[in-house]
Design brief:
Elements (H helix, E strand, L loop, with lengths): L1 E5 L21 E3 L1 E3 L2 E3 L3 E7 L6 H13 L4 E3 L17 H13 L4 E4 L3 H7 L5 E4 L7 H8 L5 E4 L6 H13 L5 E5 L15 H10 L4 E3 L1 H5 L2 H13 L4 E5 L17 H17 L3 E2 L10
Parallel strand pairs: 5-6, 5-12, 5-13, 6-7, 7-8, 8-9, 9-10, 10-11, 11-12
Antiparallel strand pairs: 1-2, 3-4
């Protein structure tokens, strides 16, 4: 839906390169809801959960934990595209069903990755939002298929893509009629090894300035070092973006995917405490998991 909040970009015409997702001359910005949890406008919202759906017990525990600590959307991958074919690939559709059950029991909507066009129709009744991952950002047939869906789409930027390519991928989705899109910056390849990728906050700010879409950041994947994620989360809020996606696990040391970058509950609680005054300082409201219409 659209709100009457002023869009940062006030051009007289829409950008002809991406006319559907461009910020228009009317100055309206888009609020996209996952379930009933808003992203954009005056709200700043946090998605959290484990990298992968490993078991029913894990997801139910994670859903309860992240909701109690302030997250408003649960994340978890049932389908996991991994660099090595020998790494854990997720539980597939049964994992999506587990996410759905945990989501409903703990009253927190969820987002999960879809990897192929053929899965969209089967997953659609179960999910609150689709995630198109970095490796599939330019999978045109997948973009078109989720564009025909009535579910919101979290579109992650590929680690090798320019900002313009990322936005044009969103345009593919919008062309099919679905403009409920959240852009997610998750880091691009750099030349150093101190961090996993490079968190491109400037690129994310450009996307927020030039489009009508909410833009969030995923510092867990971008940085890969738990002790740096809190600072990056605060910087994301200070930069005027619309939310975060954070990897949180009840027992990180036992995780089957991305164990080295996962936050445990107490670290996520500290991140949320650090985030609140920054969100308030830039005139935004941190969406409350207990009551989406209110702020902390």
């Amino acid at each position: 839906m659209l709100t009457k909040t002023q869009c940062p970009s006030r051009r007289e015409i829409r950008n002809p390169e991406f006319p559907l997702v461009s910020c228009g001359s009317d100055g309206e910005t888009k609020v996209v809801k996952i379930g009933d949890r808003p992203f954009g406008g005056q709200m700043f919202s946090v998605i959290a959960g484990p990298c992968a759906v490993e078991s029913e017990e894990l997801i139910f525990e994670a859903a309860k934990m992240v909701r109690s600590l302030g997250a408003v959307v649960l994340r978890g991958g049932a389908f996991k595209p991994r660099t090595s074919p020998y790494s854990f690939q997720g539980l597939g559709l049964p994992g999506v069903e587990i996410m759905h059950q945990a989501s409903r029991q703990h009253d927190i909507p969820f987002v999960t990755e879809v990897m192929a066009p053929r899965w969209v129709e089967e997953m659609e009744p179960l999910v609150d939002a689709f995630q198109v991952g970095a490796r599939n950002m330019q999978n045109v047939e997948l973009l078109r298929e989720v564009g025909r869906s009535d579910r919101p789409v979290v579109l992650k930027r590929s680690f090798g893509a320019t900002v313009e390519e990322w936005v044009l991928a969103a345009e593919y989705i919008a062309q099919e009629g679905n403009e409920e899109i959240i852009l997610c910056e998750r880091g691009i390849r750099g030349f150093g090894e101190a961090t996993r990728f490079t968190l491109d906050l400037a690129g994310a700010m450009w996307a927020r300035h030039e489009t009508k879409l909410p833009v969030i950041a995923d510092p867990s994947h971008a940085i890969g070092s738990p002790h740096l994620i809190g600072g990056a989360a605060a910087a994301t809020a200070a930069a005027g973006l619309d939310g975060l996606m954070i990897e949180v696990h009840p027992q990180p040391a036992q995780a089957r995917c991305d164990a080295e970058q996962l936050l445990e509950g107490r670290d996520f609680a500290a991140l949320m405490d650090r985030l609140r005054p920054v969100v308030a300082a830039v005139g935004r409201c941190l969406t409350n998991s207990a009551s989406p219409a209110r702020s902390w």
